[in-house]
Amino acid sequence: MKIADKHYRTIWLGDDGWSVNVIDQTLLPHVFEVRPLKSMAAAAAAIADMVVRGAPLIGATAAYGMALATHADTSDPALEAAYAQLLATRPTAINLRWALDVMRERLLVVPEEFRRELAYGLAAEICDNDVAACRSIGQHGSILIADAHARKAANSGARNGAGAAVNVLTHCNAGWLATVDWGTALAPIYTAHDAGIPVHVWVDETRPRNQGAALTAYELGSHGIPYTVIVDNAGGHLMQHGMVDLCITGTDRTTAHGDVCNKIGTYLKALAAHDNGIPFYVGLPHSTIDWRLGDGVAEIPIEQRDGGEVSHIHGVTEAGQGTSVRLVPAGAAVANYAFDVTPARLVTGLITERGVCPASRAGLLGLYPEQAENAAP
Predict the structure, then answer these.
(1) Is residue 167 within 8 Å of residue 274, measured between CB atoms?
(2) Angle at the Cα of 80 (from 74 to 86), degrees rounded to 5?
(3) What is the Cα–Cα distance from 201 to 216, expressed in whole angstroms?
(4) How many structural domains is the chain composed of?
(5) Which range of residues forms the domain containing residue 93?
(6) 113-123: b or e for each residue (b if 16 or more CB lie within 10 Å)?
(7) What is the mean pLDDT of residues 78-88?
(8) Which residue of 198, 216, 273, 298 is most buried, as measured by CB atoms within 10 A?
(9) Does 331 lie in the same domain as 233?
């Protein structure tokens, strides 16, 4: 996608051929800055500190983290240590483990002298495959937006496909900043917009880190897509008053039975959508499916982050000076659950790179039959 008319991915190889560049997302939307990663430890810190975030991008960064490890040491112990350190950075997003497993399994079976070149090639392949998958998610999901627009046009009596914009509500950030390019939940929106379908996006701010207000608004605005930032809990009100046509969110881990783990508050949006008869879709690539798990509520580990993310809020003054202020009484007890699980029964459909399917074991296996032996019963 583009920033100031220049195409960027969220992660790319440095000019020296071995270091890795990422966009520092902790500074957006106020400052655009590229951060170089020159060691496996730097990649691990970037994931843990949310310099990079979003399940697919976390996986891509972890893959390059393994490549950076080989730049320093290609031995078995070094690779195993890198694997363990990177795996420990974030507990919920399954793409992290998926990418690390791919890297470890492929690297440990070749002689040490071939590992460095192979590692960088594998990391690049993971990134390219993510771009292709997200582009395909956009193509499949844009059909849903086009259908919604056609229905609105028909109901209003408009001709030649004209009519009011499709109002899509999304939660947190699942755009190109959360992936290598294109995004998951936002990819259908980009594709529909580029095809000339009028789209307006309701952007949940998503406390405590405000990734919707900061990141989703930033990238939609950069692409010229109309949007409105709303507080986390405004979605239900908008749905009650007919101001939302469909919801599309991303996911950090989806079970073999279609349960969806995503940014905290997604479950509440799905409940409101269900109560108001509004379709609730989730965009995801195959790397986000955890085939080992069936019951997301019981089995997906939910990350609990530092309470300071809740007790304090970060921003800039009117003069552009970065600042942080405390919102709660001094010494207040704070809980910071980062994700929740939306049961499959509340999900209208899963938008994958292979098409749209019901949020169920049968639906997923219809698109991924090769996983039949691995899928939780």
Answers:
(1) no
(2) 105
(3) 10
(4) 2
(5) 2-126
(6) eebbebbbebb
(7) 97
(8) 216
(9) yes
Residue 17 is which amino acid?
G
Nearest to 87, CA basis, from 134, 35, 47: 47
Q: Is residue 132 part of a domain?
A: no
The CATH number linked to 260 is 3.40.50.10470
Per-residue confidence (pLDDT) for residue 6, from 0 to 100: 87
* Distance separating alpha carbons of residues 167 and 357, to the nearest angstrom: 22
pLDDT digit string (tens) for 290-338?
Answer: 999 999 999 999 999 999 999 999 899 988 888 999 999 999 999 999 9
Tens of pLDDT, residue by residue over 120-171, are 999 999 999 999 999 999 999 999 999 999 999 888 765 555 568 999 999 9
On whether both 98 and 184 belong to a single domain, the answer is: no
Q: Which of 14, 33, 38, 31 lies closest to 23, judged by CA?
A: 33
Region 40-53: mean pLDDT is 97
| Residue 199 and residue 320 in one domain | yes
Q: Do 254 and 260 meet the contact criterion of CB atoms below 8 Å apart?
A: yes
| Catalytic entry in 130, 252, 290, 340 | 252
| 80, 104, 126 - which closes a domain | 126
Contact status, residue 351 vs residue 140, Cβ threshold 8 Å: yes
User: Catalytic annotation on 5?
Assistant: no
